[in-house]
Amino acid sequence: MDPFSVITTIPDIIERCMQAYDIIKAIKNAPKSCSELMEELATANVRLNELQMHIEEVKDQENPQLDAALHKYKTTLESILNEFRGGKLACWTRIKWALSREKTVKELTSELRQNAAIFQPLLISISKRLHALQRNQNENVADKRIRNVIAWLKPLDPSTKQQLTSQLRQPQTCGWLPSHRQFTSWFSSGSFLWLNGTPGSGKTVLASFAIEYLKENMASEEIVLFVFVDFRDVRSTNLVAVMRTLLAQLLSGYNPKDFVKDFADLYKSMRDGTEPPSSFEYLTQLLKRASASWKRVFIVVDALDECALTKRRESIAEVRKLASAGSKFSIFVTSREEQDIVDVLNGIPTICLGNEMQSVNADIERFVKDKMNAPYLSLVRLDAPLRHHITSTLLEKSNGMFRLVDCQLDSLAKAKFKKNINNILRNLPDDLNSMYERILQGVEAEEKRAGADGKNIVSTVRRTLWWLVGSRRGLHLAELREAIMVEKERYSPNEDFELMSDEHLLDICSSLVHYDTETDLLVLSHFSVQEFILSGHLKDTKYAVYHAPSVSFLYRHITGLIMAYLQYADFHTGPCKNWDLLSERLNQHPLLVYIASYWDWHITRMDEATPDEQPSDKEVLDLLFDTSFLPIQRSLRQISYFGVDVDVAAHDASLCELDDASGFFGPRKCYGPPWLAVEAHCNYQLLKQSPPNTTSIAEENYMVYPLLLQGPTWLIQKIMKRRLGLIDRPLFAFGTPLMICVYANRVDMMEMLLKEGANANTCAPHYHCDHLIVPPIFLAVKAVGNAEMVKILLKYGSNTVFPGQQPDDGIPYTIIAAAEYGRPDVLKALIDYGDDVNTRSVYNGHTVLYAAVMAGSMDCIIVLANAGCRIAGSSRVEGRTPLQVALELQSSTIVRYLLSQGALPHECWYLSLDSIHWAMGEDWYPEMQTCLVQLESKQLVEANCSRKDVEEVAHILKLRFRLPILLTQKIFDFAEFWIAVSCERHEKVMIEQDSPDEPYVSTPPIGGRLENSVRRIVFRTSSHDQGWSSDGYTLGVYSGSFTWFEAEVDSARGVRRQILRNARADPRSRTHTRDQFSSSDTWMANIKSGDSISVYPKALYGGWVNYVESISVMVFTTCF
Known about the structure:
Blueprint: H1 3-25, H2 32-58, H3 64-84, H4 91-100, H5 102-152, H6 158-168, H7 181-189, E1 192-196, H8 203-217, E2 222-228, H9 239-251, H10 256-262, H11 264-271, H12 280-290, E3 296-302, H13 312-322, E4 329-335, H14 339-345, E5 350-352, H15 357-372, H16 384-398, H17 402-413, H18 419-426, H19 432-450, H20 457-470, E6 475-476, H21 477-483, H22 502-509, E7 513-516, E8 521-524, H23 527-534, H24 536-539, H25 551-565, H26 579-588, H27 591-603, H28 617-625, H29 630-640, H30 645-651, E9 658-661, E10 664-667, H31 682-689, H32 697-710, H33 713-722, H34 737-743, H35 747-755, E11 764-765, E12 773-774, H36 776-784, H37 787-795, H38 814-820, H39 824-833, H40 848-854, H41 858-866, H42 882-889, H43 892-900, H44 925-943, H45 947-961, H46 965-975, E13 979-991, E14 1001-1002, E15 1014-1024, E16 1043-1049, E17 1056-1061, E18 1070-1077, H47 1082-1085, E19 1093-1099, E20 1106-1117
Parallel strand pairs: 1-4, 1-5, 2-3, 3-4
Antiparallel strand pairs: 6-8, 7-8, 9-10, 11-12, 13-20, 14-19, 15-18, 15-20, 16-17, 16-19
């Protein structure tokens, strides 16, 4: 029998089984043998349904044993039907027959039991195959979850730096490192090795070589992790980002099936939308946990000295602890010998490049010979004796520094005459500071030689270096050429600083800068250049004009330049009205792109402690609030709307789709600055609402919001005092200033605003909450989950119940929201505050416990249980108990816990046995199986009540007991003796957002009395969604699901009720049941006799798909 025949045969056998059951049931006062046969038939019906479900799921291939068992079952049922057939016999005749053929009945019962014994091993075999399929599916889901977590950790990209550094390394260099005694010992069994050296001594190249060597020579059960710290990438200088990157590399090779179990805390944090971990202690724990499957973990971290100084000592100490005695971590780090690093790494095995001069000089010699052969340097044309003289001299003066030799070669290459080379060699500096001074000496000499025509060369170099140190990113050459013409308190460019060409700028800056031809970005050539500019050494030399006291000084300095730049007359005309004008503006003012992107970043980094070097508060506040600055604001907005596309458009307008909205010209696909790009079309809608001739609050908000998001407390405080009324005013879809601080998780800023008078109960729309109007405390619960914030809000008078708000997402009840979003710490804080753990929503009936189970939050459930929440006999919500939800959620841990706390299995009404097949093998499964079999047998009886049956019993009650009709109705309702109308459909369909709005299934017309006849409706769905999500929020639970089902009555079109939701981003099909009673339910009370109920599968947003496999509806009505 082929698989299709098996699938079609089983329903036929089930139907025969039900026929036999109904025939025997009709025999009144039948002997015990008939009752036993009925019981066996009921059990057989449940078992056959379970078998059918398994076969459909595993798409079973031909199975001779199954074919034979089904054939025997069918033969036995035919014998039963033949023996009991004869529906026209009188009741007494059937009883006589049953008594006379009791032996035959017992034999048929025995045959059924024997067949059941054959089915049991088949069911187990099929169940194993089903579990194997589910295991593969679960691994795919787990693999996606790992990738989501890795993306959430926001790791650095060390592979690109490794590739570039490897390409820079000359062949046959660094070969001495693997044979070094300390490295050999470390590679064999060591835990920590520190390679240190002076600036420019080739530490990064050696680190790159070590990574390659370890990868080539490690064992199969070993892994290599690596990170490069680089001052040019600000994120990499944060050791927290370094630790996250190492963790991400470990997780990328983690076993998917163990991930959710082993990293439930990390996965939950990602799912809840919180920030990635930032605690070193916690990150260390995670790294140790993630390394469990590896015998040894090699870690290479280059340039520890380039890490930010804030907490650097403590952070490096944590890294050292990671390689403590007995650890499987072997860590190799490089850095300079800076005092705080020396203090922390004192006593560990060390390779000091200063002590390895013979090996280092051999590498430098290869480097020099290779570079002198570079075709772009004039040195390649020198004769062999002179090249040899250059090589030996550079080696003598290199002091082991590749960087110094590189600068010296560049200096030699600039020699105009061959005779000058010997003079240059005699006077070559022997340290980097002196080398950089020599470069600056050359700059000043160039200025003197140029006379009046070159009087600004020194200032040009100084301005270039200061911009590169203090800017948010490297600058394009065109941007920098305009930047050096900007001066404080001058509202037009100083054309005395206008350079003739890009090449001239690169030439005068020499080896102090590096130009990347691929990205067109200019950056400092080495970390030592930035240190030189900020050093006290430079301050005490005749080149002190280049000295900057600190990076923060340069942030303030550049902010002042930005304030002057924005007041150029060209920007006072407002935004451009067409592409030709915009293109002309970008050509004339290329720096505008940088400033439109980062003006807020510079303002928020001003330091109040040293106001003498920063622009005045008035300049900044005028830019925000003075109406005369409105054209400037709009000019910034226009550029920022292009986002990254402005560079594309600047070179070719045809590559960027453009539009003109109300005279405000911009890109059609407008995502703008990152802080405003919260949803598609958000910026474009704002653009259309704010034409240039209109002053609007929205435009003011555009300038204020990024400062609220990033700014220091003192600046925000001054902004609030300058603009009264702003403190409680919503900004775009980001809420009030208080809500903005809550969403940014800025506790200090939030507390300042509350002290300044912000109302903790002011509600506003927020994009993170689907633009619903929410209070700040709800945002603190949903978006951040910060218990400290919640406590502060409560301290300043926040309510916990908001009865006037939208009932969706638990907004009216903060304690329900805390459970729904899985926030145990917040939940405990609210309980301690005095909120009732048994709170029930008056809007949708949700309880705190129900919300916690729907969220799959075991931690919240435990908090509630410990606080005395009712679990035994807990209230139904939408016809389901928390235990039933946990079963449908397929969470064995929650099911077991609820049962241990007194949850009652028999209250899982209309939960089908096939919906818990996933739990076969769990210790609580037999109890649930027995309970559900009993409930399904009861449901079979209920579903087979006809109108005639009900009327006959009513007639008996009236004649024999003379009961009034109202009392009869109450008895029937108490006994649930109702008429059943049902429908079902088994067909796979795929529903998307744009699918036709059509019912999947509709019931026949409902019987019963004319009005208020519906007593109960049971909806059952088998479905799942697309199985993935672009973010990690609430995967595998019901919160945040955008695929669901709605019910509608045909006499009330347009009035729909959401009945069930799919688990979010989970490809496993689940059976969900909603058992709805009519008690105080206005929707059900309005259903009339003759109505039909339809069920609509739904999906929202692109990428969301509702895969429907089957839906059934059973409606129970009364005749009275």
